[in-house]
Amino acid sequence: MPELPEVETVRQGLAKWVTGRTIRAVEVHHPRAIRRHLTGDAHFIALLTGRTITDVSRRGKYLWFPLDSGDAIIGHLGMSGQLLMQPADAEDEKHLRIRFTFTDDGPQLRFVDQRTFGGLSVSEGGAELPDEIAHIARDPMDPLFDDELFVARLRAKHTEIKRAILDQTLISGVGNIYADEALWRAQLHGARLTDQLTKPAVRRLLAHIRDVLAEAIVAGGTSFDELYVNVNGESGYFDRSLNAYGREGEPCHRCGTIMRREQFMNRSSFSCPRCQPRPRTIRH
DNA sequence: ATAATACCCTGGCCGC
DNA sequence: TGCGGCCAGGGTATTA
């Protein structure tokens, strides 16, 4: 499941492999992969053919490729999307959705996506920051992320803390895995209410979010299966460092209590019953 | 206005 | 072995 560390790992790989290269041709193999490009595949292809990729940028879980035209390719991996560099003679992947070839006849860029929650689109004039993702908050690895603004906005909300840190308009890049990891480190249950947390408590949580994201980037991300890999098809190894996610029935790495799983926001949340007690207050 | 829910997808896995 | 049902969950549209 690509969250910020996985997307950043992909970004770094792409930056090395596609920056400065000129697109010769684009093939769209599945319409759903460009469903967010509202003007259709012919227009998508026309905007890209002959253009040179000048950089690879990221905000949260979104990627974009600025082009020499001033436009940008926007990419989101969704649940199972992959952006792979492949030699031209490599066999097509079963779930190949979009293929880019380049004028240098070097490795192709392929968008592969089993569950089709991800996709690409072109943002006209979006090289600096596409309008389509301007509503996404800066992520905590961004030098311009405003810590105190985040603390204030979070505490102004009336919701559960896990919902808040998964809200990409408040802080971007955090998904279910790293949310559970950061909450475990901060010793907070995800159902704690944002407006009942102190400023220092929120600052501590933010520091843990930053730490866990940074450590995961160093590890190349978290891989449970073949659905997340870097541009060369390799898995990350942060799964070996997880303290919460997926650890139901196993002892807490801090206190030894057996970890629990709870249904939360229609997905699984993992926590320690002792280190992260449920709040006593009833939601209203 | 904000908050919470429904929906989109596929394939691996489980129990019968 | 086959099959129905469940599960993974990011982002957005819809509902409350």
Can you lay out the helices and strands and say which pair or pack?
Layout: H1 4-18, E1 23-28, H2 41-48, E2 57-59, E3 62-66, E4 72-76, E5 81-86, E6 96-102, E7 108-113, E8 119-123, H3 147-156, H4 161-166, H5 176-186, H6 199-218, E9 260-264, E10 267-271
Antiparallel strand pairs: 1-6, 2-3, 3-4, 4-8, 5-7, 6-7, 9-10
The chain binds a DNA duplex (16 and 16 nucleotides) through residues 1-3, 32, 61, 76-80, 95, 113-118, 157-159, 163, 166, 168, 175-176, 224-225, 227, 265-268.
Family: Belongs to the FPG family.
Domain Formamidopyrimidine-DNA glycosylase catalytic: 2-118
Cofactor: Zn(2+)
Describe the structure.
The chain folds into two domains: 4-133, N-terminal domain of MutM-like DNA repair proteins (Alpha-Beta Barrel), CATH 3.20.190.10; 147-271, Helicase, Ruva Protein, domain 3 (Orthogonal Bundle), CATH 1.10.8.50. A hairpin with a 2-residue loop joins strand 9 and strand 10. The chain is of the alpha+beta class. The strands form three sheets. It has a four-stranded antiparallel sheet with strand order 1-6-7-5. The protein has a four-stranded antiparallel sheet with strand order 2-3-4-8, with helices on one face. Strands 9-10 form a two-stranded antiparallel ribbon. Helices cover 25% and strands 19% of the residues. The chain is globular. It binds a DNA duplex (16 and 16 nucleotides) through residues 1-3, 32, 61, 76-80, 95, 113-118, 157-159, 163, 166, 168, 175-176, 224-225, 227, 265-268.
